[in-house]
Amino acid sequence: MSLRRNALIALGLVVAVPAVWIGWSAWSLRAEISGRENAVIADAGERPAPFDAAAMETLPDPVRRYFEFVFPDGPPRDISSVEVEMSGEFRRPLMDNFEPTTARQVASTRKPDLVFSADTPIYGPLWAIAYDIFVDGEMEMGAKLLSTLRVVDEKGTPELNRISLRRWLLESPAWPMALLPGGPVRWEPIDDNHARAVISAYGLQSSMIVTFRDDGGISALDAEEDGDLETPYHGSGEHTERSDYRLVDGVRVPMSFMIARAANGEIHPFWSGRITSIRFRRD
């Protein structure tokens, strides 16, 4: 009996110790991500709202219609940051299959800073926590299998920092006050249904072509150059589609999204789903 009991105790320890370690690692990683989110929120709340009222009159026509559509009561100037919860299907880089994924994103509306994190299955019971952070012009990208084994670890380079700046722009239909004149984005006319959004910050610059719907909403954003489909990360993606606008706290937000890589005239979706919760933080 003593031998059997000792064997059961040993087996229990073999199972329990890794489980405790994984649980602690997950808590520690999520606490680290939460700390970065709180820093973005605090910094945004201390900054004055960048807004150029006079420039509203000189915006390209589809851009003015867009702001009239998303801000039915006029542009809010007291929203400093936003917290977005999402759920959908995600395809890992260089893979074909999609897996159910939940994600969270915190962004400043006053400077192009954001913190993205996601929980996604890898294979069977294996799962990973992935994160993508862009703050003060520097990006960090990582993923940990079972929250312990690092499988992605990318640090900022001039090109990755520029791509991360573009990502904030690509995601911005969820926080349209960031696109108002006076902030980091300027608008250039193209035609009645398109305009170029140019974002400049931290000594970096990028741009996307924005397509507008007849009712004024943004339907798509497209990068002006092909992506490299062989990279071990998706980065910002080069194409996004937005739909199902709903009024949230006085702002019309597209609740459905699809984000894709794009090259050689082809679109390769990798993340699609819905916003399940959105919270605007006001001064």
DSSP strand (E) fraction? over 45%
Q: Strand count, sense and closure of the main sheet?
A: 13 strands, antiparallel
Number of helices: 3
Strand order of the largest sheet: 6-5-4-3-2-1-13-12-11-10-9-8-7
Structural class: alpha+beta
What is the terminal separation in angstroms?
67 Å
**Apparent shape:** globular
What is the CA-atom radius of gyration, in angstroms?
21 Å
Low-pLDDT residue spans: 6-22
Order of helices and strands: HHEEEEEEHEEEEEEE
Count of individual beta strands: 13
Summarize the topology:
Blueprint: H1 2-45, H2 61-70, E1 79-91, E2 98-108, E3 114-123, E4 126-135, E5 138-145, E6 149-155, H3 158-171, E7 185-191, E8 194-201, E9 204-212, E10 218-223, E11 239-248, E12 251-263, E13 266-282
Antiparallel strand pairs: 1-2, 1-13, 2-3, 3-4, 4-5, 5-6, 7-8, 8-9, 9-10, 10-11, 11-12, 12-13
